[in-house]
Amino acid sequence: MSGGTPASGTLPESQVRAMFDRIARVYDRMNSIMTAGMHHRWRQRAAELTRVGADSRALDVATGTGDLAVELARRGASVTGLDFSKRMLEIAEAKDPRIEWVQGNALDLGYADGEFDAVTVGFGARNFADLDRGLAEMARVAKPGGRVVVLEITSPDRPPLSWFFSLWFDRVIPALGRLADSEAYTYLPSSVRRFPRAAALGARMAAAGLDDVRWVLTAGGIIAIHSGTRRT
What we know:
alpha/beta, Rossmann fold, seven-stranded mixed β-sheet, about 20% strand, globular
C-alpha cells in the first residue's frame, strides 16, 4: 500500500488498514466460507511455483494472516511475512512464531535489491494503491533468476461461470459480510472488479522486470496464479 493518493476505485491506505485490522479475527473463517476451504489448496499451488526449498529465502508481501508464508516455510525456506495491518500479523504470528513477521509497506519494501529467492503475494495485490509500483518492488527484491508469484482472484469472462461469479461476489459475499463487517465485504467485490484480467496482469509483471511470465487459471477461471523470473 501507499501513503499517497489512492488509485481510481481504491480506498485510502489508512482506511484499508483499519478495515483489515477490524476483520482480522474473522478473516480466516470468512475465507473458508467464501471458498469452501479451497483457498488453502490455491496457496499450496502458489508456493509450489516459487520452487523454494532448504537454504532459500522468501518474502510474502501483504501476508495477511500468514497462510501463504506458512506454506513457504513448510518447504524449508526461511520466510519473512510482511503486512501493514498489525492485527493481521498478530494472527499470523500465532500460526508460526518461527517466521519473521514484519509490519511494512508493500510499495516501499525495506530490503536491498536481490535479497530473496522468491517473493509472493496471495490475495493482496488488488489492495495495492499502485499495482505497478508494488510489482516492481517485488521484482526488485528478488534475486536475479528468483521467482515472483502472484495469487489473486480474477473475473471470468464467459457464462455461465461469469453469471455465477457476479451473483456470488455482488450479492452473496456482501450478504455474508454483514455478519462480520459490511464495509469490508462490500469492498472485496469492487477490488476484484477493478483488478486486471490474467493476460493484462501478466503484461504488467513483465513490465515490472520479470521474464517467462506464465499463469494458471483454476476454480473454473476465478483464481489466477501468475509466476515470473527476475531478469538476470
